[in-house]
Design goal:
The protein contains 19 helices and 17 strands. By secondary structure, it is α/β, with parallel strands linked by helices. The radius of gyration is 26 Å and the shape is elongated.
């Protein structure tokens, strides 16, 4: 949250409104907590939150006129109801009644305008949950679904999202750091900004290409964890950028990058990797991944600036460290994990992905999930037999290969999660790596039949539709000679993951 600036001349006219809204008597005697940000005053009662725009003039907005504040309130309501309709209740006026007193939504003349929201407990914020350990992997998956659906609903805008716009944003952040009291950290932040400006120049053509491809849209614009709240058990983004559509009209991956980066900063790499991979599986937007380090680094710079401006030097250091990590040079590799149904290959692949390469790790391409996405359903939805016809399976592997090549070309490592039962299929995976000029390693999980059957019987909420009948068919199949690294998969999940990590000859960041 931004700190409050000093009072501007127009704000003196708003003092009676502030006093009225801060008075418990205006809310039936309920206690009122007041928070002031750079552009708003928030009045929090036990069940409602009232947001009052400050009549300030800043380089990026002018809220001095009453009409401008009214318009901004309505626009903020419209934008944020796209993602959290149950949170935003409406826009009401503060009115001056005939007796000269102020009222909420009275019959008198409007003297100011408010956004009215349902109040939620601070503990429901994703930032609080991430800090306390209560933000789960399932929450990360649900957030990915919410953001992917949201981005898919937006119209492309080719007039915004240029490389120059990104350079202006980074330059503004750099200049703001001039005002930080911690000159050492500010200098590190400015060095990061310089690095990002250089990278923006290098990637200018790619940024423009994304705009031409329709990937620039009017997004949320500020998707850090402090702007995500649990509503009815689902993570919902709120408080998106409302004061400038130009600032919020960005590459959809730049929008997503804020949440991914913030999960990394909260030391939740598994969650960050899952959020990214589930979003990509839903949108198939692998083409933009070469821009991900730039986008993640810029989001980290925003938080560095914000934390330094509020004196939170320790948090600024954390975001500087994340920026260094995501901008680290990467040497992509291709890892394939195979085995019969129930062997634990998907669990192993998920465990390896966050630490394979710089944060947020490797892109995970799972055959079961790709098949579900091709059929237009969520990974957990069971498919009919027809979805497993040979022609569908061929199309699925063609898509898996295409997405792997796109991702490797973008410079990120890839993990292929499939049974890889046939020699031809294993050779195909190896050929992808050769063609892309990257290191390859295949892992094969050996598991006793009884253990396979037990795991399949115990599956819930999983993308695999494999049954015992499917497994028994696999057990009688001719697998041919398997030359991949063989892992004993009969132990506990933790033991198998440890064995898989130890067997890797590709570069991996070891978890702390």
């Amino acid at each position: 949250m931004k700190t409050a600036g000093s009072m501007q001349p127009h704000e003196k006219t708003q003092q009676d409104v502030i006093a009225f809204l801060a008075d418990p008597a205006s809310h039936g005697g309920a206690a009122v907590r007041v928070i002031t940000t750079q552009i708003s005053h928030l009045f929090l009662t036990p069940d409602r939150a009232y947001k009052l725009k400050r009549p300030v003039t800043l380089p990026f907005l002018d809220y001095a006129p009453l009409d401008a504040r009214a318009t901004a309130c309505r626009h903020e309501m419209e934008l944020n109801r796209r993602l959290a309709p149950g949170l935003y209740l409406g826009v009401v006026a503060v009115t001056r009644e005939a007796d000269g007193k102020l009222a909420l939504d009275g019959s008198g003349e409007p003297v100011d305008w408010l956004i009215v929201m349902n109040r939620f407990p601070d503990e429901a914020l994703a930032s609080r949950m991430a800090a306390s350990g209560s933000f789960t992997l399932r929450h990360a998956a649900e957030l990915a679904d919410v953001i992917a659906a949201f981005h898919g609903s937006l119209a492309p805008d080719q007039t915004q999202g240029s490389p120059d716009a990104l350079k202006v944003a980074i330059t503004d952040l750099r200049q703001t750091l001039d005002h930080s009291r911690n000159r050492e950290l500010a200098a590190r932040g400015q060095a990061l900004a310089d690095r990002l400006l250089t990278l923006t120049e290098v990637k200018a053509a790619r940024i423009d290409a994304r705009r031409t491809q329709g990937k620039v849209r009017l997004c949320h614009g500020d998707l850090h964890l402090g702007n995500i709240v649990m509503l009815d058990g689902i993570p919902r983004p709120f408080d998106g950028i409302e004061f400038s559509d130009a600032i919020a009209t960005i590459d959809v991956l730049f929008d997503l990058a804020f949440a991914v980066m913030d999960l990394l900063a909260h030391d939740l790499p598994d969650h960050a990797n899952l959020l990214l991979n589930r979003y990509l599986a839903a949108t198939r937007d692998y083409d933009g991944l070469d821009l991900l380090p730039l986008y993640l680094g810029t989001r980290a710079l925003i938080r560095v600036m914000s934390e330094l401006m509020t004196g939170a030097d320790d948090r600024a250091l954390r975001y500087l460290a994340v920026a260094d990590a995501v901008l680290s040079p990467a040497v992509p590799c291709l890892l394939a994990v195979g085995g019969l149904s129930g062997s634990g290959k998907s669990t192993v692949a998920r465990a390896l992905a966050p630490n394979l390469g710089p944060g947020p790790g490797a892109i995970l391409l799972r055959s079961d999930e790709i098949r579900k996405r091709m059929e237009g359903v969520a990974p957990e939805v069971k498919l009919p037999e027809s979805a497993y016809a040979p022609a569908v399976t061929r199309a699925m592997f063609d898509r898996l290969e295409a997405d792997a090549r796109t991702t490797l070309k973008a410079g990120l490592s890839v993990i292929l999660d499939a049974t890889h039962m046939s020699p031809r299929g294993r050779a195909r995976a190896e050929r992808i790596a050769r063609d892309c000029g990257v290191t390859f390693q295949g892992l094969w999980l050996d598991v006793p039949d009884a253990r396979l059957e037990s795991r399949i019987n115990g599956r819930v909420h999983d993308a695999s539709d494999a049954t015992l009948t499917v497994l028994r068919s696999q057990q009688t199949a001719d697998l041919g000679a398997i030359h991949w690294t063989r892992i004993d998969g009969a132990g506990t999940i933790a033991e198998v993951i440890t064995s898989a990590r130890a067997a890797l000859n590709v570069t991996i960041r070891r978890p702390a």
